[in-house]
């Protein structure tokens, strides 16, 4: 990790936050997904911070804070992120969520729409009742980890969301980050599901950019297509060649789309 972007610690009455904060201008909050933490955005923070204020937190329970006392759920993490914005005196922010972080970003907008200026959703991990069987891989991964087969279990999870043999191709720092957050799978297994609710989501009238990888496996392309059809201000982009970890595979293209989104919002607000 670039030492020029130190990890800051903020203790509030409700939680302890570890985050990076760089740049000036409109605030952009980056929310990581499952098994990740603030290190996931290593190719976004330096480039984006030249254009706006970038806030990159690790969600409570994730490295380096493994034993948070708060509830583990999309709903609690959305409240946590809203509390973080308040603690940093940020009136509103553009919010980018990847995978499970996409659900958190949406819940933030549903809970306090005045705090979220726009949404950027990269392969958002929203569950549908028709796709419940897809979540079985989480149980399989957790069983392997509990049996002491850490890398085997993590490979099951990563390959399910990014494509076969992705774990084998991952670089050392990414594998270490995932190992550091393996304990969160136990918590995630028991969290309340965040389901796709078309009636509620269609009420989101803020600008939304949807990002998908050309090789992202099901259900991500289907989720993006449904969101694109119901969100009144949605724009979709496909990054190629890339899968679920599109911000790592094609960082400059990913960052370009984010900056284009921010520029567009600056001209329309």
From TrEMBL:
Cell membrane recorded as keyword: no
Domain AB hydrolase-1: 26-245
Pfam families: Abhydrolase_1
Molecular functions (GO terms): hydrolase activity
Keywords: Hydrolase
Name this protein carries in UniProt: Alpha/beta hydrolase
């Amino acid at each position: 990790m670039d030492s020029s972007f130190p990890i800051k610690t903020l203790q509030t009455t409700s939680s302890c936050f570890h985050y990076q904060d760089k740049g000036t201008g409109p605030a952009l909050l980056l929310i990581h997904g499952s098994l990740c933490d603030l290190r996931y955005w290593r190719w976004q923070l330096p480039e984006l911070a030249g254009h706006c204020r970038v806030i990159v937190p690790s969600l409570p329970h994730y490295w380096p804070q493994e034993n948070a006392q708060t509830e583990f759920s999309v709903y609690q993490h959305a409240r946590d992120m809203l509390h973080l914005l308040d603690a940093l005196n940020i009136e509103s922010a553009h919010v980018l969520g990847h995978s499970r972080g996409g659900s958190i970003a949406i819940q933030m907008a549903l809970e306090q729409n005045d705090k979220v200026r726009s949404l950027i959703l990269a392969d958002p991990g929203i569950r549908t009742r028709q796709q419940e069987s897809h979540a079985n891989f989480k149980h399989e991964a957790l069983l392997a980890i509990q049996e002491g087969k850490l890398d085997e279990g993590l490979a099951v999870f990563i390959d399910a969301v990014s494509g076969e043999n992705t774990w084998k191709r991952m670089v050392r720092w990414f594998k270490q980050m995932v190992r550091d957050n393996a304990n969160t799978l136990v918590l995630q297994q028991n969290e309340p599901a965040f389901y796709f609710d078309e009636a509620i989501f269609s009420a989101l009238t803020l600008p939304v950019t949807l990002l998908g990888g050309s090789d992202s496996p099901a259900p991500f392309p289907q989720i993006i297509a449904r969101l694109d059809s119901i969100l009144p201000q949605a724009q979709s982009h496909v990054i190629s060649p890339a899968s679920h970890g599109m911000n790592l595979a094609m960082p400059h293209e990913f960052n370009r789309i984010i900056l284009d989104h921010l520029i567009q919002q600056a001209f329309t607000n």
